[in-house]
Amino acid sequence: MKIIDNFLPKNLLTEIQDRVFSQHFPWYWRNHLVEDTDHYWFNHCFYNNNKVLSPHYEDWIIPILSKLKFEGNLMEARCNMMIKKNKSYTSRLHVDNEEKNGKTAILYLNTCNGGTAFKIKNIQKKYYSKENRLILFDSSTLHRGFSQTDVERRVIININYSS
User: Fold this and answer.
1) 151 close to 84: Cβ distance less than 8 angstroms
2) DSSP conformation class of 122
3) How far apart are CA 51 and CA 48, in angstroms?
4) What is the pLDDT of residue 90?
5) Residue 53 CB contacts under 8 Å (≥ 6 apart), including other chains
6) CATH class of 2-162
């Protein structure tokens, strides 16, 4: 697992934040996080199933992949948003995929008391959302998102690829 603070240049981070936190960014309802019994969320898919699905792919995802020194197969890139509730909720532990040499990058777009918990060797460790922090890990690592109670939205960019 690798953690990189201040991952994006400030101008690109601000461009992304200004758009995704505006009223003019298209978010799409998802009924549940991982399984039917957990909570709803919203996402915006940039890339999936070998198709570019968003006009923001070139301007936002390509620079992130370039900074990651990406060489391989892009599987999915999306923006996820969790909405504030009175009580934090989590997804169940899951892996993003079991692709050999699969990697997941999570880029936190805002700071809040939500985040991501990882289970490694039967120990869970929580990482709280910190603006412009990227966590890079093997896609086969068990993890779960947990929602925030301190700000209206928790927004991340999630990228899955194989190297």
Assistant:
1) yes
2) T
3) 5
4) 80
5) 45, 46, 47
6) mainly beta
CB atoms under 10 Å from CB of 93, counted, come to 14
End-to-end CA distance of the chain: 15
Residue 96: pLDDT band with limits 50, 70, 90: confident
Distance CA 155, CA 27 (A): 11
Question: Domain-by-domain residue ranges, the chain?
Answer: 2-162
Q: Which residues pair with 2 in a beta bridge?
A: 136
Element (H, E) at 9: none
Q: What angle do CA 152, 104, 9 make, to 5 degrees?
A: 65
Phi, psi at 125, each rounded to 5°: -130, 130
Please give the DSSP secondary-structure letter assigned to residue 25.
S
User: 44 has which bridge partners?
Assistant: 79
CB 96 within 8 A of CB 66: no
CA-CA-CA-CA dihedral for 120, 115, 72, 26, to nearest 10: 150
Q: What is the pTM of this model?
A: 0.93
Scanning the structure block, which residue is given the tokens 């809040």?
A: 112
